[in-house]
Amino acid sequence: MPIPPDDAMSVNQDLLEGHLLHSCPVYRIYEPRETTIVMGAGRRDRGDVILEAARRDRVPVLIRRGGGGTVVLSQGMVVLALVTSVDSPFENRQYAGRVNAWQKEALRGLGVEDLNDRGISDVALGERKILGTSIFRRRNILFYQSSLLVGNDLSLFTRYLTFPSSVPDYRRGRSHEEFCTTLRREGYDFAAADVILRLRGIVSSRLASL
Known about the structure:
This protein has a single domain (about 10-210), classed as BirA Bifunctional Protein, domain 2. The protein has helices spanning about 15-20, 50-55, 90-110, 155-160, 175-180, 190-205, and strands at about 25-30, 35-40, 60-65, 70-75, 75-85, 115-120, 120-125, 130-140, 140-150. Residues about 1-10 have low confidence and may be disordered. It is an alpha+beta fold. The protein is built from six helices and nine strands. Helix 3 packs across helix 6 (about 190-205).
């Protein structure tokens, strides 16, 4: 069942709690209302964040359940978060790939081409990253989160994040703004709301059978 966005500050923890309480698949798809820095569970002491800039701009720095790198969530992104029970307590990469495929399907429906699976669970447009994911597992419970770069300000990545200590091979030393891109930057003139509308129909029809 869909749960409407309430506050990005929660980093979707309430979805996990809702699934544990009701034992049914839950999801949320939204465009962040404000800028927030979110660190993966293992990144707290890795120096990923330029704290002086975050404090000066009063941008909150939060920790999420699940792995993956530190991200800056902001307007112009589409965040998908879902929690469901799955058959295997393993196969994280396979489950991430299935959900990523739903997002690629939604984007292809909007005319986006040259989408590629890269790294462990990224999606790139050509050779530039447009989608990153994070997974948290509790036995047969899957908690998946992703951020899709539709029309957000990429300079926020450089403003608030250091160069990460662990990167996929296809990054090839590129800076945040060289490595990542947005759909708008690549010439696709649609809004985050257009992606949300198309993606919601796909997720609602597929989630129970993930």
